[in-house]
Specification:
The chain contains 4 helices and 5 strands, in the order E-E-H-E-H-E-H-E-H. By secondary structure, it is of the alpha/beta class. Helix 2 runs parallel beside helix 3 (145-157).
Length: 177
């Protein structure tokens, strides 16, 4: 089971995350070829929407979130995540809607490949996490956020649960949305 984490970057080599990092077995690292034919070159541990490559940018926030979700536990090292035996797929993006569309598009394609290949390609993504809360209390009607909602609906139709952060503001989301 795979958790796809959408953030600005991660620490793929972190001692608590290495063992649980998702690996695309159909790719050969660093050869510049789309070995598995999924339209993404060298997407070994996920995809970097910003660079358009499989390189995973280094960033503390994504590493922290990854650790909470799936740091290996009971190993005498660092911390333990909520799920010690999951696979963490890293999707690097920024908060531009076009980037989010590409990020969730990558996730959707990986789940579709898994479903239609009988588990031989792609990834069995069961949940996504996006936790870079936006400072706008009404995501459902403001600006172009309905596009995000449509993507969450598409993922839900494929059996992917979406977890997102509340806004980065001092508000009551039950009252303000």
């Amino acid at each position: 089971l795979v958790v796809a984490i959408v953030d600005a970057g991660f620490d793929v080599q972190h001692e608590d995350l290495r063992e649980n990092t998702w690996v695309n077995a159909g790719e050969i690292s660093g050869n510049g070829i789309d070995d598995d034919g999924n339209s993404f070159i060298d997407d070994i541990n996920g995809w970097n929407v910003v660079s358009g490559m499989g390189d995973i940018a280094l960033a503390d926030h994504g590493a922290l979130i990854s650790g909470i979700i799936g740091a290996k536990g009971n190993n005498g090292v660092g911390v333990a995540g909520v799920n010690w035996n999951t696979h963490l797929m890293y999707v690097v993006t920024d908060i531009q809607t076009s980037s989010l569309v590409a990020a969730y598009g990558y996730i959707l394609k990986q789940k579709e490949l898994w479903a239609f290949s009988g588990g031989k390609q792609g990834a069995n993504i069961i949940v996504t996490n996006t936790s870079f809360g936006i400072a706008i209390p009404d995501h459902c009607t403001a600006r172009d956020y309905p596009v995000w909602n449509d993507l969450y609906n598409q993922m839900g139709e494929l059996g992917i649960l979406s977890a997102v952060a509340a806004p980065n503001e001092d508000i009551d989301v039950d009252v303000d949305g």
